[in-house]
Protein 1
Amino acid sequence: MSTNELTLTPSQSPGLVKSPLSISPSRPLGAVRRPVNTTGWREWLFTVDHKKIGIMYGCVAFTFFIVGGVEALFIRLQLALPDGRILSADKYNQMFTMHATTMIFLFAMPMAAAFANYFLPLQIGARDVAFPRLNALSFWLFVSGGLILNASWFLGGAADGGWFMYAPNSGPVFSPSNGVDFWVLGLQIAGIASLIGSINLIVTVLNMRAPGMTLMKMPVFTWMILVVQFLLVFSLPVITVALVLLMFQRSYGATFFDVSQGADPLLWQHLFWIFGHPEVYVLILPGFGIISEVLPTFSRKPLFGYPFVVFSGASIGLVGFGVWAHHMFASGLGPVSVAVFSMATMAIAIPTGVKIFNWLLTMWGGKIWYTASMKFAIGLVILFTIGGLSGVTHAVAPSDTQQTDTYYIVAHFHYVLFGGMVFGLFSGFYYWWPKVFGKMLNEKLGSWNFWFMVIGMNLTFGPMHILGLQGQPRRMYIWTEARAGEGFFNFGFWNLVSSIGSFVLAVGILFFIINVIKTTRNPERAPLDPWDARTLEWLTTSPPKVHNFDRIPVVHHLDEFFHRKYVEDETTHAMTQIATGEDLMRAEEAAADTGIHMPGPSYWPLLLAIGVAVLGMGIIYGTPIMVVGALVVLFSSFGWVLEPSVPEPIDFDSPSHDGHTKEIAPVG
């Protein structure tokens, strides 16, 4: 074969081409059909492209991550030494309430949405999500909710009742400022955003998979995102009901949680935790999905027990709805209820353990490549296991009753959420950065990023186990030298270690920010398939084209992209490479579809989200503002419905396009 020509036949790579192709590698890949690089602000404000929306989700969510991290540093500064004077009692209550709310609702959930929006259509071989404009609306509603939540800092004080906002503390008697009203309103709007997004992604997965991609050929990341969307669809309405009841009690004099009127404040706890415990898996499962793509890639072998990983993820989602009351063992539920929820809490450890063993067996015997992404993935397995083991102790009711509202709980859920979610997200950053931006994050800085984060996390949250078992309450804003104790179990020593660890952790995050800035300034482009990856999102240029794929791929295998590059030797059963990722992408360009329809930008989702935010603010500040918001919502809705939906197809053979694709008339 000539060194300047590569011939690929269907027998060599199933589903690659319909007939033998002769492809010259001399032409730069993507030079003919690479999309126009649009950077104008209107292209981002009005875009309905799932990739741009994913990037915007990620940027805004990471900004809130920094905000939540700064709030955490203030908390640790307050508790580093006895008789802390950094924050007053009221400001401390606001700080830990907003820290938890920001990290859960404004960072973790939307950052998972960022990954889902960007990669889910690519992984299933689709050109966009099912409802592009709804996707844009979901993003702008999330931004509106986040801004309203944080606006409370400047408009009378933030919410001060904890992220769980237990009644009656969240009522107007004990929280008379508008902070809780902003909290309720912001979460309602952010919840609508999540609900819209979840329905959109469910429809996308169930109806827009590439030909041949059965459910059991979907990547694990797509599976975990699908499970998360069903969790959101069934749990968000419950917290929405609770928020509406609280809103009516605070704004209109209702008595849903007023004990003096015969109400039961435990109603709020049930409603909140029926949402709150599935929410834990909403946060964790995306990280599980990410490392289920990373571990096989950098272990150089398929994921061990793919069906078990998939069904264990679905089982976690199902059983997660039946364990909420273990958050309420100290509330006097009664022995029968406690026994039932204790058993359910033990049961959910089984599918979680299945995943851990599958990940370990994937690495076992593999040729491991210790990239930054792989280090974060391994870190997740270890740290989440520690958090899971401490969580199993909560299935023992007497133990849980003693640990409730102590720092032992804080240690547990940070090992689960930070170790199991944030480390998964950072693994995804390093793995998919070259796909999204076409550049490689610096591996040396990535290692510094990892080690500072893993050391800082263990220094911060490890001592909290000791503090909690010694009885330090989780919402104590100050401690005195007299209460510090002596020896190894000294409050003062471990609080200081924990506070130092939080700043070590912050330095780790700073290394990531430096890495991003350095990479952005670096002109060097990443290889098209830098990791020798396995899934379909790599079967396109980096960054992907506006239309994602030049032709919709036909799927024959799990890990379709890998099986197009490698075939199994019938004698030795060894995998032999027959093509590179670049070869495959050249073949796709050579056989590109014509007449591709893509939706164009629309400003109605942004305007509608603004209207919803103004309408909500009217609940706090008066009917006239509410009327203005309602009019904007009505006007935007009509504009959306009446927007033209007849697109112009992309014709690659037309000289008027000059070989470039571009966004055109909107489609539904």
Protein 2
Amino acid sequence: MALFLGATPPSAQAGAPSIMTRVEFHTSDVFLSDLYTAAETTSRTNEKIFAGRPVLIEGGGYNGIWIETQPMGGEMNAKRNMVTAFNNTLLFIEQQLPNGRYPGLIRHHNRDQKLMPVYTHTQGFCFPFHALNLYYWNKKRDASYLQRLYDSLEKFDAYLWRYRDSDGDGCLETWSVWDTGEDNSNRFTGTKLNHGGWAGETPPDDPVFPIESMDFMAYSYDARATLARLSVLLGKGTEAEWQARAGAVRDKLRSYLWDDKRGACFDRDRNNKTMPALLHNNLRAMYHGVFTPEMAGRFVHEHLLNPDEFWTPFPLPSVAINDPVYRAGPNDWSGESMGLTYQRAIRALENYGFNAEVVLIGEKLLAVVGRDKFFPQQWDPRTTEASPYKNRKDYGPTILAVLEYMARFYGVNVEFDELHWGALGREGHTTAYTQHWDGVAYAIESKDGRAIARIDGREIFEADCGVRVDTDWRGTVLRVINLRPGPARVRFHTGGREMTLNLERNGIHEFSPMR
């Protein structure tokens, strides 16, 4: 089957995928099998055609592609559909304004078959990592795509610093409710902005905005850190400059928005006074990688795992449940736990080595979504009851989060030049996951507490369940990571070598390069 991204053939479009992917997953656990099938089936209903090009919309009543969700969602779904994955990124690059501003979302007019980019707000930025990782999913076959991405991110970072530091204090600002995707948030009470957006390139005259923002600082950090990686890949020689500029953003965030006594970041209001609400936005900052390891560790241990704040019966409320700003309501980022937060939490926690916490959070999500057998936008963090906003049960970020946690636990994930094999296992059950990628089968099976990984039938490793194993694309083992909530003793076999590894919680055993 010929693959194309739009009205023009792949040869005419930089970044067009030239390879096929698909996933097979089988398990003796009927609960897990049914959930997987429902997630894959429902996700396909969110595949649409925009101006002749296949995309994966957000779903759940959101009939467009938002930059806060769909480049991330598309890349996660590259395991199954490379075409939508690239379109979900390329369309934002193509619709970027000359001043560097991206559309917050792109809709589609079905009758006229026209794209409708929307520039009334920034709407998050889950973009750089996923856009870069697509280059690796495409087996590094198109350097021109890297150049397009480099130019695009450079323009956007320049846009942020040209317009979004209106008082010149070195901290970027959010100018509307929708800029950070915090619809209806109680912390913005009093704003006079209609519908939550602001399209201007000068700050609004508003009682609430502009706000000095950890989110916007994280957007710039992520763009700059990715530009440093791209510089290396393109041989530009600017990586040290971009790393230094990313470091300057991190330093300012820490000195200006981080409260060392409370172990978290806090935005500042239009008068530069600290806004005291304890927000899950700290986890967003971790997703973008702007925290230092020490900052991330403090937020996770002091707040994320605190049952009085974020470690509720259904974890990850948008605001700590004991905070005065907390408020539960439909499509309200003042409180209830969001499927999008679960989706972003994977990278947020993996960035800092909290792999056991990824398992704990992911298992909560699988249990609750599998119980209800639909995919809502949010849940009550105290009762675990789903809140199907306007009876919407096909919310894409929740669907993709479910599929991505399964891949992390039982399957194969591509991250740059590495393969991450989930050897968690399912107690009392078998699992078998195969990632078909460019004509090669990457398979991992678990049974009776042991997991075996193979590439086209060639055994790569065998291990006790409860770990993640990282390899290069050829299958050379690089490291073994403990996924269990406590210390583990792991029997491991690779390349004719047998060994026993003693791993602490989140412990890592690094392998020396094979010669």
Protein 3
Amino acid sequence: MITALSIRNLAVVEDIEVTFAMGMTSLTGETGAGKSMLVDALSLVLGDRADSKMVRQGSERAEIAASFATENNPPLQSWLLEQELDDDGQCDLRRTISKDGRSRAYINGRAVPLAQLREISVRTIDIHGQHAHQSLIRSETQRELLDTVAGTQPLLAKLAIQYQQLKTTQHQLDTLTQQSQDQTARHDLLDYQVNELQALNLDQDYIKQLVKEHQQRNNASQLIEAAQSAQHQLFEQEQGAAYSIISQALNEISQHQDIEPQFENIIATLNSTVIQLDEASNELRHYLDNTDNDPQRLQQIETELATLHDQARKHHIEIEQLPDHFEQLQQALASLAHIEVHTEQLQQQLSQKMAACRELCQQITKKRLQTAQPLAKKITQSIQQLAMPTGQVEFVVSPMANEHFNETGADNIQLLVTTNPGQAAGELGKVASGGELARISLAIQVVTASSRSVPTLVFDEVDVGIGGGIAEIVGNHLRKLAENRQVICITHLPQVAAQAHQQLQVSKTNLKDSTYIEIIALNDPERIEEISRMLGGVTITQKTRLHAKEMLDNSH
């Protein structure tokens, strides 16, 4: 529950501090006194949008602070703990609005994003504005009303998650399907290219060896001729063969090495040369013995190379690049194949998400159907007490067309009303008059209040258009609500104000250059005077005071 509210420099408010008690509190005052300013302040401190024009003229900033009791509010306690904003059971909110438009929020003295004030709001206060009944004609409001009483929120939270995942999976599947359609021609081309290249030997070393062998066989005659010439000059010519000349020089030098020691190195060098020439001769002989000038083999190589060059030209590369290019084509083809596999996986996931959503929708529908009739009966009983003796309401829960569903379930929900005997039930916005709609809305708020988990209900002149005995019934309903929660009611009806456990009076003073609002808690004599004023008449008589006292006495 809210225990205190302070407002500084907000609009016409200079400095106000209000304390609230458990039970029912009524705020009363002359029309235009600024009673709804408290609701505006509450809305601001709980995260509503702010405007720099709200700052009192001549002030740098407006400030609103509110304190809430947490001992009987486990959801609030848990949230504060989760956000690491807990402070020995305290929940103190503060909101500042600068004249330059900046806004700051605080929870237990720590600066927080504005969104966290809104999260506090849903765990503390439910505000019903004086025009709240107008939203009742909207189908989403009617659905939310039924769901609040049916307790479907946990299921709806799960459905929202599953539905979002379903939409994400569907989007991914649609994207892949589009890609698959766009890539069909590319898949066929890649498949053809890979099969065509797969028939070739595209080993990197093999291609290098093939090019080298082609060069050798294409020049085989010249190579054989050069080897034969070298063999002849080194060994076979009768005069001047290198091997013979060097061997003879070695023989002559060796005969004198005993006399000239310096010949030893020369002899070693010549010996090494003779050995190397002998090895060269063996290699030349081996080359000539094992080299053939086979034209058929050359033609085979040229045919194979021509095929490789043709493929390389088709792909605008060199033949040495064919192996790497072939691997890239295979990877691209495999990637397209992966799209197909991924598509199948997403289709399976989509089916699973669809089944999960439909299962949750069925559970939600079941709860709605179980709640619709009993809730309609309670609302009917309540509106019949509010000067609509023949009024009736009913909730119609019907499946969406074509088995459709969304994050709110698979149902269309309508709140239909009958206001006169023999009249067919019709849509709320078309059948009920403005006054009837306001009374139906109030009845609904009273009936469904116990289904809401928030500990504080604020009613901002929701009793507009009601008077007399009906007003007393409204007051009784609000006081009954206050038996197990805090009710704050801004009202102009004495029958309602008299039912409150606590009454606050709002007054406005207009000075030459400024306007001031004051709020005071009334004691019993002061309440009699205020109720008397509300009962009407320019002059308050003793009879009026006695009537006011009687109303207060009867409320206890």
Protein 4
Amino acid sequence: MKLASRLSLLFLLLAVIPSAIVGFIAYDNSRRTIESETINRIVSANAIERNAVDRWVHAKEQVLESAARSPHFISRFASLTTLNDRAENRKAMEPFLTPVIQAGGFSELFMLRASNGLTLISTDGTQDGVDRQNEPYFRQGKNKTSVNNIYDPPPLNRQVMVISTPLRDKQDNVLAVLVARVNLVTLPVIMEPSGAVKQNEDSYLVNKFNVFATDPKFGQGYAMTKSVYTRGVKAALAEQDGVAFYNDYRDVPVIGAFSWLPDLEMGLISEVEQAEVFAPIYALQKIIILIGIGIALLAAQVGWLMARSITKPVQRLIEDTREIGRGNLEYKVATGGKDEIGELSRSFSQMAKGLKETLVSRDILAEEVAERRKAQLSLQESEEKLKKMVTDLELSNAELQRFAYVASHDLQEPLRMVSSYTQLLEKRYKDKLDADAHDFINFAVDGAKRMQNLIDDLLAFSRVGTHGKPFSLTNMESVWQAAVDNLQVAIKKSKAKVTHDPLPTLMADEGQLVQLLQNLIGNAIKFHGRELPAVHVSARLENNAWVFAVRDNGIGIESQYFERIFLVFQRLYREEYPGTGAGLAIAKRIVERHNGRIWLESEPGQGSTFYFSIPEKGEEKTWQKT
């Protein structure tokens, strides 16, 4: 093997082997790191969901226990236990039961006679007199507060969860069992992952019969209708807590965290798709392979070139070492023959000349190298600062989204309690309060309602980018009709005229577009002048996008406020018109999710026209998932 071939092979091995080792180590470490971080995050998400469910159930128990322990409630009920007229009993107890239902978010509240389980009073009149002595919640509720598993009883044809607690007199004798059917509307909201989440991350509950208790993210209508037997579900129902790699109910590989909820006798499963988790690793793997191939080719080429450049000088160096060693760089070697020795002689002569030029320019070259190193260090520092800025921005967005969700969710239950018990206080002591007290109570109730509206709008604003449905073919005529139907009360009250031109069909999130049109038409009706409100909706195709216009004859807006009105909770007219100031901010966020934009044209007293564009191909904006 010639020297050129040997050097090429040596360069190839020296380049490929270290690159392969470094690439494998980088790939393995990155995979382990992502896997560890994902496991920690999914376990934390599972624990958060478990705590959220526990808090949700505990809040319901507290409302029911508070009602059962109320002395006024007990004394009132004790006087009715001997009456046989259930309609009169229900009428007498309704002022006391209604606030409990509102405060606890219950769908039905009823009381069972402790001796035989007969229904004495129920907020659902059709349930009066029903015998429930064989129901588990009756037997358990006579002794202590108990929570029964979520199930789907045939008569009700819907999912329910039952909470029961004993109703005792002053001598601690059990008079009856107070039972509440829990409204499960808010349970799917609680089960939605909070904080920074993956696009394909999912959390759901499974009862002890391997049936979905709540709908999973990719299985609408699964609750109480579909069974699931994945590895995570089996482990959770075996009362185990842990993490595993397996295929989920869609037969998609996932990383799942599972835990057992003993009070509800259900398993809590939190999962994230492996493909999404390891997508960066697969991309890194491809990059490493491509870099390895490039290094191998480059090393082979460099080795070959180096071999050719080294062979000739070495051959010539054999003949002319002494002369060049004496410093005679002007020495020219005889050409010799055409063999390798002759070729070496000619090459070495050229090398000597080049060496002289190199010595002359050595200082200049050293300065240039120093400058390049300095520039490279400065570039690396700028790159590190930029990466840190991007990381800080992503963390800030995630924390802001999490704050909006937690603040809006955790404040709703206390506000409902304040409003319900303030109204109950007014009813109970109505004849003992003066006019100022009634005004103060009304102020408190009104403040709680306005706070609730602010929270609902904040929650709706924060969810536009992360809780929308996949785009589907949407008829804007149907969207317009749905928005107008939702605004019927306001339209009739203001005698508004709402019209539209023919509207197109496009790819979009139909529910969000209904909310968008409803907000814009509702504002047009609300902010009207002396004339009866008139609103007109039109659309035109322009530059591969549908441009919609909502035109009204209202009070108009000064141009200096055109940008401000799209900020959340920014209101121009606080006293004259009701609202929270979130409607246009939500509208803007919906349009941005559809990869469009929103703007307006308006003059004071001349009405306003709000424009928004939706791409004809239904392109969705990529959001930062939080």
